Amino acid sequence: EQPLEIQILYLILLMFYSNEKKGKGNVNEKENRVTLSDNHVNSRQKAYEIIKEKLKNKEDVYLRGNIISLQRNGGRNATQMAAYVNIAGLGIIGVIPIKKWSVGYIATESFRSIIRNNVNAIVNFKVCGETSIKLGRGSINAFICSRADYQTAVGYNPWTLVEKTLNYGSVVKVRIVETGKQKSYFYGAVDGIDDFNAICFVDDKSGLDFNKIRIGGYYYGYVQKKDTEKGYLRIRMTKEAEQGSNIKKSGTVLETQEE
User: Which pairs from 160-164 meet CB under 8 Å and 24+ separation?
Assistant: First the structure.
């Protein structure tokens, strides 16, 4: 089996090949190999140089691209703390670290679930700088990107919604996405606020058994502490809720879904 990094590069190039149907190229599915025509290569290199030049001139570069997969490094330090994207369908790799995915806090498992469930979806982001990705014994050029910076540019900030809609004691519904580092603590996606996880907990006043809290389960609770300036929201869970969101969303976590 080919290393995951080779498979990722193959998928990116295959997308690029598919987007440029007029060009001549070759696809070898058995070997995960894509041979691009001169037109393909030239347009990709030209776009790469344009992005580099704009970054050098300290210009803001906002683009969009398809989600390819989660980042994966081998060895003992295996991690999936970033997403790979195919910038503008050109076969140029963008890397969006988890901390640059959203203005709001996103727990690790929630981030991984979003990426796994939205492969090929289109996301908007700001290109921040150059980087490289290990590929076998070598590496390939890529760009560090930030979806959070794009959200800031268009005025989206979940903490603004928290400040306006959630007061101390406000009842909220959350979906548990990950177990916290401390006993009785969890991370929960707040119903009605996209790209946002809050700290949730149970104690003697909760009326819930810590051992029976389920990942993916929905629970009601109330705001026990908040500090929007420091980016902190804590919810005491009080009872199990009906499954599913109570909010009819006008959009999704991702900006555009590829047809």
Answer: 160/228, 161/193, 161/196, 162/193, 162/196, 162/226, 162/228, 162/233, 163/228
